[in-house]
Amino acid sequence: MSLTTKARYAALRETILDVMERQIGTSGLSGLGMRSIAKTVGCSPGMIYKIGVDQDGLILMVNARTLDAIGARLRNAVTAADRPQVAMRNMALAYVDYAQEQTPRWDALFSHRMADERPVPTWYARKRDAMFQDLAAVVARAVEDASIQQRGEFSRMLFSAVHGVVTLGLQQKIGRVSPAKLRQQVRDLVDVMAAGLSHLSRPEATAPQSS
Question: Is 156 helix (H, G, I), strand (E, B) or coil?
Fold first, then answer.
């Protein structure tokens, strides 16, 4: 493949990703179709697959843009905090705000399933895990003598709890929740969890339980 052809395919890929990002941002993955994308781009459906990436790969690339957008918000939230507990609260509120403002894009992160149950590629897993690393860095400031494993586990637990509240709130699964109420629920949840962080520094927090 010549350099000119590679450059043309690279440009086509970026155009396709831009179109997919707009479609996902409007109607999520349910409204995504390669034929409609090809029509918008102005190429044949077969041409899309000549760029060397299948549909799963293209969706992951769009989702990676979403992860970048969320990550930027979380990092900005940290800079405005004077204490790690406040930073955790701000990060959680930034997350719920993004989920409410960009619900279809946010939902695509979790509703997408790889064909044939394939694992996501390493580059995507690293980008996804970077969000937990940012949170773990804040936890480290709050409990300096906690182990790296403890910080990582607490970060994932905190994210899972916040994500669960946000998901149920947006889907209205357990009753109607207003945007303001959802933010308050997330704030209260994080404050309670942050208040219990001190247990990570206690030796008994990691000691095996006796039978």
Answer: helix
Q: Which amino acid appears at position 176 of this protein?
A: R
In DSSP terms, which residues pair with 175 in a beta bridge? 173
Domain 1-53 sits in CATH at 1.10.10
Q: Who contacts 73 (Cβ-Cβ below 8 Å, separation ≥6)?
A: 94, 95, 97, 98
The number of C-alpha atoms within 13 Å of 83 and in the hemisphere containing its C-beta is 7
Cβ–Cβ < 8 Å for 145, 168 = no
198-199-204 Cα angle (round to 5): 145
Q: Cα separation of 197 and 54, whole Å?
A: 43
Per-residue pLDDT of 94-144, as tens digits, reads 999 999 999 999 999 999 999 888 999 999 999 999 888 889 899 888 888
CATH of domain 54-201: 1.10.357.10
What number of other Cβ atoms are within 10 A of residue 10's Cβ? 12
With residue 58 as reference, give the H or E element that holds it.
helix 55-79
Sketch the domain layout of the chain as residue ranges.
1-53, 54-201
Determine if residue 188 is left, alpha or beta; phi over 0 gives left, psi from -120 to 50 gives alpha, anything else beta. Answer: alpha
Q: Please tell me the pTM assigned to this model.
A: 0.86
| DSSP state for residue 175 in the 8-state scheme | B
